[in-house]
Design goal:
single chain
Length: 443
């Protein structure tokens, strides 16, 4: 029998993860948590691998290995796993929204907790970059280096700008799922296909931006289908996997789409900016693989150690995602300044690839202090109330606009102190509009 003392979690991170693992109910779908952590870690690893800082004609340069070695674009078929995150997001949001309805918790209270968990951890990241850019600008660092560094570091926040909008629409999309079922997936897929046709056949490039909601909402809807077991079983999984992979090969080899499933600066067309049909083919491939492996994954995650590791990683996953590029840029900048020979290997050379494991390990170790300092922002205080829904929606619209501008152009600019003040201020201002209510309590 557990004593009262036993009910309090221990202090150590690993000990606490084991404590939580021992108290996880059997009904929990642990695969969802594992896939969430796996997808984010794959993105982090992918960013670290494709980063290519080096010296060109005696001057520091920063590029993509995808640009310098076109064969490496195949790697994006492994590391582009954002569809998995939106897929498991649909599963989780289905559970949380139905739970809120059963508890008579309104949309405002439900959405408030998501705003704080998704946007709250971004505020210190943006604040720290504002300080670093101001200091660098005041000490004569060139605007080009500032722009490259801040842009690379803040590119990951594009995902939050899209995901928070998808979350805001959950009451509508979940109702659509309940009423129309699989049709609620097929309609945005068809809309995305029509927009791609207009993009290529009629040069209607502006319309392509509508694919941000259509593509990612379609993937998110499949999470509802998984939760309700309308998508389940290894046979369904194998069909989705084979169909998705075949479609992906046809679209990128016989169709007009590029090979890379992330943006490549030298490509005239991007599959992700804005998103296009290959991402939906990739989503089908990945979802099919998940369904095929779901049963063995469940058995493996029923073990104490794998499940505790999943809990440990999930407790700091947003911090890892937000700060991993910052850590990379700080280390690269330090190497350019202090030890230039570390970056003397030319990208795609044998020496360059041989040094990748050491760089990846260095990035991982250097990320740990940031996790220890900033992961607390993933567990925000619970307010006594929530802002009015209209304020929440206006606030997150302002936040998402700011995040999109920062992801596209970084934080460095021609304004006072070398900063782009408009996107910089939009993020905290929108967060305040959406969340500030008055008296705040703690859980």
């Amino acid at each position: 029998m557990n004593t009262a003392k036993d009910e309090h979690p221990p202090r150590g991170l690993w000990a606490k993860a084991l404590w939580m693992a021992d108290r996880t109910p059997e009904s929990r779908n642990r695969t969802v948590d594992f896939l969430r952590a796996l997808s984010i870690l794959a993105v982090v690893l992918g960013h670290w691998v494709i980063s290519a800082p080096y010296f060109s004609d005696g001057s520091p340069a920063y590029s993509h290995i995808l640009d310098l070695a076109p064969w490496s674009q195949w790697l994006t078929w492994l590391f582009q796993v954002m569809p998995v995150f939106f897929f498991v997001g649909g599963f989780s949001n289905s559970i949380s929204w139905q739970s809120a309805q059963r508890r008579k918790l309104g949309y405002g209270g439900w959405f408030d907790s998501r705003i704080r968990r998704l946007i709250g951890p971004v505020i210190p990241l943006v604040g720290m970059w504002a300080v670093m850019v101001a200091i660098a600008h005041s000490n004569g660092v060139g605007p080009t280096m500032i722009s490259i560094g801040s842009k690379v570091a803040l590119i990951p926040v594009w995902f939050l700008a899209v995901y928070i909008l998808v979350v805001a629409l959950v009451p509508l999309t979940f109702r659509a799922w309940q009423r129309w079922g699989l049709t609620s997936i097929l309609v945005p897929v068809a809309a995305a296909a029509l927009i791609d046709i207009a993009f290529f056949a009629a040069d209607q490039h502006a319309l392509a931006w509508l694919n941000y909601p259509f593509v990612w909402l379609a993937v998110h809807q499949t999470g509802y289908a998984w939760h309700d077991r309308r998508l389940a079983g290894h046979r369904t999984g194998l069909l989705l996997f084979a169909g998705g992979l075949a479609s992906l090969i046809v679209l990128t080899h016989l169709g007009p789409y590029p090979l890379s499933l992330v943006g490549v600066p030298s490509d005239a067309i991007s599959n992700t900016l804005p998103p296009k049909l290959p991402l939906l083919a990739l989503a089908a491939t990945q979802i099919g693989l998940v369904l095929t492996l779901e049963s063995p994954l469940k058995r493996w995650l029923s073990r104490r150690i794998p499940w505790a590791m999943t809990i440990l990683v999930n407790g700091m996953i947003m911090t890892t995602f937000l700060w991993h590029s910052t850590v990379m840029m700080l280390l690269v900048g330090l190497a350019f300044w202090v030890w230039p020979t570390l970056l003397s290997a030319q990208p795609d050379s044998n020496l360059w690839w041989a040094t990748r494991p050491a760089w990846l390990l260095t990035y991982a170790i250097a990320t740990v202090p940031f996790i220890l300092i900033f992961s607390r922002f993933e567990r925000p205080s619970r307010p006594a109330g929530s802002a009015a829904v209209w304020r929440q929606l206006i606030g997150i619209a302002v936040v998402c606009l700011g995040l999109a501008m920062l992801a596209m152009g970084g934080i460095g600019g021609p304004d006072w102190l070398g900063l782009r003040w408009i996107p910089l201020l939009l993020v905290p201002a929108g967060f305040a509009i959406a969340t500030v209510t008055g008296a705040v309590g703690r859980t």
